[in-house]
Amino acid sequence: xxxxxxxxxxxxxxxxxxxxxxxxxxxxxxxxxxxxxxxxxxxxxxxxxxxxxxxxxxxxxxxxxxxxxxxxxxxxxxxxxxxxxxxxxxxxxxxxxxxxxxxxxxxxxxxxxxxxxxxxxxxxxxxxxxxxxxxxxxxxxxxxxxxxxxxxxxxxxxxxxxxxxxxxxxxxxxxxxxxxxxxxxxxxxxxxxxxxxxxxxxxxxxxxxxxxxxxxxxxxxxxxxxxxxxxxxxxxxxxxxxxxxxxxxxxxxxxxxxxxxxxxxxxxxxxxxxxxxxxxxxxxxxxxxxxxxxxxxxxxxxxxxxxxxxxxxxxxxxxxxxxxxxxxxxxxxxxxxxxxxxxxxxxxxxxxxxxxxxxxxxxxxxxxxxxxxxxxxxxxxxxxxxxxxxxxxxxxxxxxxx
Length: 402
Hints:
Blueprint: E1 15-18, H1 19-22, E2 23-27, E3 36-37, E4 43-46, E5 61-63, E6 68-71, E7 75-78, E8 86-88, E9 93-96, E10 100-105, H2 110-118, H3 121-127, H4 138-142, E11 145-148, H5 151-189, E12 200-203, E13 208-212, E14 224-229, H6 231-235, E15 239-240, E16 247-251, H7 253-259, E17 266-269, E18 271-272, E19 281-284, E20 291-293, E21 297-302, H8 309-317, H9 319-328, E22 335-336, H10 339-343, E23 346-349, H11 352-390
Parallel strand pairs: 4-9, 14-20, 15-19
Antiparallel strand pairs: 1-11, 2-10, 3-5, 4-5, 6-9, 7-8, 7-10, 12-23, 13-21, 14-16, 17-19, 17-21, 18-22
């Protein structure tokens, strides 16, 4: 591996070491395929980084004929494409397949090494070779230069980064728990085949205006400047708000009159490359200025005296309605819905006040999930910054003297 540290000043008290001099590198070797098992028979077997999680691997197979072995607390690295994913073995014993290598620290803090190797992914990617499968070998790993502070400072740096990692993981668990709760609520509150007492079952067209947008992304001199809410804006967001950034385009006056978005509108993906991605929905919950519904989308404008838009948007996410659209799509390689199919969807809904209460539940939980996602993103950005500064000595940490 090429020396990537020639231009880096070594901080006072730090030293540069080759990985081979401070660790033992164990390259994986797959056992006979006849020894594989998906049940607990033998020892866990890692075939590659497909089983890598955020920090610890999750083996899917076992083997009764292990060859190369990783011990608990070894740092693991994927050595076949995608190269350079890093993990830690938290199991007592794991068999290493040829797509994985174990790096066993001998003269370096394990967690410091873990974070340092994460920071070296681009170097491993530059070193990979091969035509069919890109890979790195033991020399590529062993000759990696490690910028290494004294052991106490290594421990302190690792503690800081581990603390941030734990916060990221905890935030991720909160998000997962909230999404699980939300899924359960949708099943409980929305997924009816037969209307409960006081609810109605009617055609979507009885309560909405349905428009299929034909507004393209082109900019034409003879048209008016507009903003477009496009396919990915709908696909990636459960709500359309006025703090989003929309694409600049142009449209005719007729298109502006017909497809300008209003608060309370719903948009669904009319076309998709997969059946499962059809009819993804979003609700417009803010007043927008000069924003039009773009191509490959259907604009659904409910009668707001009868239908709450957030409630209806969630109805589109329910299993019954989703399955209806999946069954009704046209196409082989690309799938689409026509206006008639959308109109003929049956929706089951309660009185407006009950819809509003259900909508408020989902607005509250979605807001909380978004806040936690933003928090996780902030923590992830912080971690990247800290890794860059702490692992190069740009920022030094204080350690207590013995």
